[in-house]
Amino acid sequence: MAKTIQSIRGMHDILPEQSAAWQYLESTVRQLLARYSYREIRTPIVEVTELFKRAVGEVTDIVEKEMYTFEDRNGESLSLRPEGTASCVRAGIEHGLFYNQQQRIWYTGPMFRHERPQKGRYRQFHQVGVEAFGIASPDIDAELIAISARLWQELGLKNVRLELNSLGTPASRAVYREKLIEYFSAHLDALDEEAKQRLHSNPLRILDTKHPATRLIADAAPSLHDYLDPESKQHFEQLCNMLEAMGIPYRINPRLVRGLDYYSRTVFEWITEELGSQGTICAGGRYDGLVSQMGGQETPACGFAMGMERLLELMQTQEQTLNAVAPDLYLVLAGEHASATGIVLAEKLRTELPKLKLQVNAGGGSIKTQMKRADKSGARYALILGEQELAAGTIGFKPMQDAAIEQVSLKLTELSHYLASKFN
Ligand code: ATP
Ligand code: MG
Hints:
Blueprint: H1 16-35, E1 39-40, E2 46-48, H2 49-56, H3 61-66, E3 69-71, E4 77-80, H4 85-94, E5 103-112, E6 124-133, H5 138-155, E7 160-166, H6 170-186, H7 193-201, H8 212-219, H9 230-246, E8 251-252, E9 264-272, E10 280-286, H10 290-293, E11 301-307, H11 308-317, H12 322-325, E12 329-333, H13 336-352, E13 358-360, H14 367-377, E14 381-385, H15 387-392, E15 394-399, E16 408-411, H16 415-423
Parallel strand pairs: 1-5, 7-8, 12-13, 12-14
Antiparallel strand pairs: 2-4, 3-4, 5-6, 6-11, 7-9, 9-10, 10-11, 14-15, 15-16
The structure holds adenosine-5'-triphosphate and magnesium ion.
């Protein structure tokens, strides 16, 4: 027999049993973003490599070691996108979207990074990204954070905390950068190899090291906050005030620096302790310099991206997916007569109750078999129609998730009225 072919390591199929949860998450996000008046942009999955080198930065993990880069048949270097902001900026400049106007946009889709696969870290993964262009004031930083906070609430997610920092302007950061190089140079012997390599290329990244010895040194490093320029300080204070006014708790983390070079001022992450070491479900911030760096006119910008696999993982851990995707009702049909009647009854219910999620038993089976299928479907209730019920003009209604509650008998003529009060 021929050897079977498998998917690429770190790249996964989303199977039928998982896709309902994905669709639920995607549609919740979609509806929420529409309520905030953000519009979707769809860009190609492949771009010229130069785009990511320039937008993400040559000395970042992504560009240094994580990109899927190849030559196409014309010899041009192309890359699978590792993130979405670069493409948004490229498209915005190319189509004049930033020209004296504000843009609130979002995107979703697969991203590709050649990392070591582990829980919450894959080589193909999915992000939803939200970006606002042309707005320099902290009200838009606050709006973006409010969107993410509301999303967790709508998904029923608990125990996620917001960490916040300001990186200042590139000019104030340059001063800090020198201080940092000076400081780390004085502790050179205690630094790990990676940190030594980063010392001159990207010393701020050493601040979020996971290496224990370097961690100790980094914890005692000078704080970026002491080097913030006055405008950045004010921007940050205003943002904090708005978050407080909206009742969104946050924690200032002066060590939060983010991996990408293009950030300025606000940076934030949403973190959970419930996913092990891959606990960041959403990350973002302000990147005022990027559009002009990419050849567009000076355009302030702010945005975030969330990792869909990590979000789904957290939803599963907190049991927030099952109810969201399971049918409300499973219709059990015992006997030939009931089967024929049941399919008509189901269509009638679907017409009368457009929001009802109803799964009808198909392919026969004993009541026991059908109840097992009902259980597996995750339905909250079973409707049971047998010969006896048909003769009496009734139907059984049984809660599936609480064995203590008895089955009740409902009149068929009153069924949709009863269900409407429960499900619509
Ligand atoms: P990390 O520090 O975990 O590597 P990052 O800083 O590289 O994250 P970003 O580029 O900011 O991540 O991407 C935004 C979000 O996308 C992350 O917070 C995370 O939820 C998700 N994400 C990033 N890389 C992966 C991956 N390889 N697999 C799954 N999700 C990912
Ligand atoms: Mg990474």
